[in-house]
Amino acid sequence: MCSTGAQAAANSPLDILNAGNAIRSGGRSKVLTRAPLARGYATPVDAPQGDYAFEVAASNLRFGEGVTREIGMDFANMKARKVGVFTDSTLAKLLPMQMALESLDANNVSYEVFDRTRVEPNQESWEEAITFAKKHDFSHFLAVGGGSVIDTAKVANLFTVYPDADLYDFINAPIGKGKPIEKTLRPLIAVPTTAGTGSETTGTAIADLPHLSAKTGIASRAMRPLLGIVDPLNTDSCPREVHISSGLDVLFHALESWTAIPYTERVPRPSNPILRPAYQGRNPVADIFSEWALRQTIINLPRVARDGNDREAKASMLLASTFAGIGFGNAGVHLAHGISYPVSGLNKKKGKWQHPGYEVNHPIVPHGISVALAGPSIFRFTAPTDPARHRQVANIFEELAEPHAKDHIDTSRVSDADLGQLLFDRIARFLVNLDVPRGLKAIGYGTGDVSDLVEGTLPQRRVLDLAPGFKGSDGREELAHIIEGAMEF
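Structure for hydroxyacid-oxoacid transhydrogenase, as requested:
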């Protein structure tokens, strides 16, 4: 699991040298970078300095079958005055909520339930949840659901503490003002019911903004749940398609955080620690979590797709989701998530794709599917920026693939120039074996939509700035190339 060989040689000495220089100079030293720069363009002498430090932050976690039944004791121990319980209309009737509410009742914890969370939330659904939370002035919060529910509870908590703020005060720049969150939020316990988002570990919340036909959100360590209750019993009710979509989110969380630019190349260096973003660029700690999650997903997601009763594989996927959350929550994601937001947002006007297995009354490209569709094209594009790291990814796919999905090509004999296409093929084969739609055309997009998809991706600066392979431009040309290549695989 630990990185060795070429990867260690590429990271550790530089990290140590930068840290030493920073300590000696009180943080004013120039950060040394490898030659050639992974970003692919020359750096002027007076260019903004990259960061010299990274931070590691994650929620407290509790893993095990049946731990949902401990929630009432947790809130009683915290002397909760009144708990806001957030879920959706489907989960409100299922075992995870039954266990949670029984535990609250058994421990005499007062609560109110909000069960109108929207799957793939939008601004309107967030505002409804915020209004509910402000009305009740909850002392504590509980989220029981997938990423949509957990993200909604985070935002409801935020605006309980900032009741007079505007939503766009905290929405990521340049869409919103991206103000730092300086107050302490109220305790939130998150209970994931899908093995996908890792939202129980992070301070990120994402929603669809209809007027932009794209998604963005709020990202701050201040929004992290106090505790994530990771209970394998809670994913039993997921349909096969939800397991697959959620698992693909895990896969790309791991791939993107593993291949993001190094934290030393993220600019500008923050003038104050509070300004250091949650998404910092890849770093040695995040790498460990991301690689483990990648390996577990390649092994176990096909097993879950084949047999929904495979309890070992489902538990492994839930833990992989949490590990990937820790990885990307500290390193960040990049192109697959950046492109996914307009893919989902524009669907209501263009493809109007209604993914099977989702009980909703509106067109939907589930988040994991929208992330995966451009995946093969993205990593064909990024492979030349760091062939050694991408070669390791290609090796992992072949090493852990099921026998019928192996291509039996010796990765070490593939040239750097051909590595991107090999990685494209291996990621595509993995997706096809999970019955993922075979590219953007399969869900209703065409080449005439490339420009709109590019325009919807460009505002996602918080993730695009972590993407390798841009040439000093805003990425418009590169994004068009990637999206054209994602039309089919």
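The chain has two domains: 64-235, 240-485.
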